[in-house]
């Protein structure tokens, strides 16, 4: 059951508390009577004896309710009410009119003036109280609603601010690199798009992009760990920042890559000055965890022009120029030239042509005899790949092996050569001599490929040639770039009795010390040493030294690239075991090589 008469259950506090009522009446007696009665109820009551006083009192302290007499000498209750309603400060105060006038017209006028209620005199005090309570209840409820509304608005405002703040943080995260705080690739590209757009509008505008890549940074990461790598990157970022042109933007692209945008240049030279400043800034060593580290960067520069349609194309060219700078050596800058783009395109073209060559069987194996120098007879052959391009004709391996390595295509190609060369050897062994051997080149990429051993097992099983008739030629760097991995592979090869030759010996690490730790059977002395023999007849250089050391270790020696009989005589005198070169024969196709074998030549 609801007790409507207990307002406190609704408002939770006694309604008379702190409630301020203004009573307005020009008859002092009426005024006193009403005030006394209301005060007894616990209301705080103020009095006004005229309309003017009432307005001043209401404005100086806004009451919760006004009881207003209508008929007063100088200003009527209606007028007072209208003035109060017209002022925003007092407009919300509920007003109950008190009057002896009892015509419906008067009541209507009272409500039109803005009154909330109307009591006719003479009145029953209970009625006054009930109506007063009712208005006060409404008033307090309104106040509470206002307060709650204000609170709600404040909270919404707070949440909005928090969201805006979070948004700003997210935006910062999305556009900045977390390690260095520099703009990231996304932000850089946005700025570059903008600058490119401006240049398309204003054809005179000059700008430039520098693409920076730290040289051999991987070595730092691998040897000192990633935490140290991060410290170093931070230090690098700081140095770059210090030498940055005033209007330039420096961004980290990820890893050890940075980019600089010069959005406005008076002269092209500015970009080059910036590159030089970067290279100079990197000269002093970095000190990290008691280590002294020298860092160089390679820089590709592309000069912006409105001919570019997209920002990515500028970055692509800056990257190409950077790659060219790297090829020049560490710590260089290169300006992009359109021919570089052509070269990059050709590279791509070569790659897809190589893929086609595999499926279209465009490769051939050529064979170059390896001669036993003491006996003067053919001991075996080196298998050398040739590419018979449908349009370009015969392409030498130097032109496509590097790309085949980079793309990993060397793995399937290498397997095909191994298989083909071994099949050929098996045939020749049956036809001519069971002692013939075959040398097959294995590139660094193949050598670290886990499938190599499996490929060799398959080939040996398929062809049934003796494993010691198969010689794999690898370069020193294939071993030294990853000695641990190489050791495991070499161990597998040794177990199978497959032979191992070091190709181009003398051009790489040229260190004999590692020969102790690896199961090497043969050294192939590089052609460049052999060609020096007859030019400086009295100075045979390193060749005798290499031969002597190899022999003392039980390792055979093959001299590569013998072209003259003087070279041959010298090598024979030095007791070099084997030789290979144009003097004996150029690389031949299978039919020609078989012909040569049939002639059984002696040199
Ligand atoms: P390489 O293994 O050192 O091969 C010897 C190269 O020297 C061959 O060049 C051969 O034709 C050349 N040559 C031999 N005798 C003479 C000579 O008296 N004078 C001169 N000027 N050159 C001579 P080619 O066939 O052009 O091969 C070049 C390189 O390409 C090879 O050097 C080898 O590193 C690589 N290669 C060739 N075939 C293969 C292959 O099947 N697989 C892999 N991974 N690499 C291969
Ligand atoms: Mg070779
Ligand atoms: Mg060689």
Task: Outline the structure in words.
The chain is an alpha/beta fold and 603 residues long. It has three domains: 2-174, Response regulator (Rossmann fold), CATH 3.40.50; 185-336, Alpha-Beta Plaits; 362-597, EAL domain (TIM Barrel), CATH 3.20.20.450. The chain contains 22 helices and 21 strands. It has an eight-stranded mixed β-barrel, surrounded by five helices. β20 (556-559), α21 (565-573) and β21 form a beta-alpha-beta unit. α12 (338-359) packs across α13 (397-407). The longest helix is centred in the first third of the chain and has 51 residues, at 125-175. The protein is rod-shaped, with a radius of gyration of 49 Å. It starts with 7 loop residues before the first helix and ends with a helix. Mean pLDDT is 90; it is low at 1-13. One magnesium ion (MG) binds next to loops.
Topology, element by element:
Elements: H1 8-11, E1 20-24, H2 28-40, E2 44-48, H3 51-60, E3 65-69, H4 77-86, E4 95-99, H5 104-112, E5 117-120, H6 125-175, H7 185-201, E6 207-214, H8 217-224, H9 226-242, E7 249-254, E8 257-262, H10 269-281, E9 286-288, E10 291-293, E11 297-304, H11 311-328, E12 333-335, H12 338-359, E13 363-372, E14 377-389, E15 393-395, H13 397-407, H14 410-431, E16 437-441, H15 444-447, H16 452-463, E17 470-475, H17 476-480, H18 483-495, E18 499-505, E19 522-525, H19 527-535, H20 543-552, E20 556-559, H21 565-573, E21 578-579, H22 590-599
Parallel strand pairs: 1-2, 1-3, 3-4, 4-5, 11-12, 14-16, 16-17, 17-18, 18-19, 19-20, 20-21
Antiparallel strand pairs: 6-8, 6-11, 7-8, 9-10, 13-14, 13-21, 14-15
Helix pairs in contact: 3-4, 8-9, 11-12, 12-13, 14-16
Residues 382, 441, 473, 503 line the site of one magnesium ion.
